[in-house]
Amino acid sequence: MILFSWTAFSGDATKAVVGIGITGSREKAMADAEEPVLSGQAFLAVVETVRPVMAAHSLSPCYLRTGAAWLCRRDESGDARWRRFFVGEGEADRIAP
């Protein structure tokens, strides 16, 4: 099962995260993440594909990143712009052209 997690970041260290969520729909995750970016509460948002797993040391449920993600920022005209990127195991984030 693939899910989509989203996080919206404020850019302020005292309240770094302004919104988070998990959903089964990429479109819903992107719409939910885009809202605080467009309102000015967040300066960027990230949507990532994740899958549910259990932590080996505690058997606690958690989510594992799959590597595919989308980054949202406002452009000069105030519209939301999305860019897809990939994170490989042991690699730094790479923004796709």
Notes on the structure:
With 97 residues, the chain is mainly beta. It has one domain. It is built from one helix and six strands. Strand 1 and strand 2 form a beta hairpin. The longest helix has 14 residues, at 26-39.
The ordered H/E elements are EEHEEEE
Query: Which stretches are poorly predicted, pLDDT < 50 over at least 5 residues?
Result: 92-97
Q: So what's the overall shape?
A: globular
Helical fraction equals 10-25%
Give the percentage of residues in beta strands. over 45%
The total number of structural domains is 1
Q: State the major sheet.
A: 6 strands, antiparallel
Query: What's the total number of strands?
Result: 6
Distance between the termini: 28 Å
Widest sheet, order of strands: 2-1-3-4-5-6
Assign the structural class, choosing from mainly alpha, mainly beta, alpha/beta, alpha+beta, or little secondary structure: mainly beta
Number of helices: 1
Mean pLDDT reading: 88
- Using the CA coordinates, give the radius of gyration: 14 Å
Record keyword descriptors for this entry:
6-stranded antiparallel sheet, 6 strands, 97 residues, mainly beta, single chain, disordered C terminus
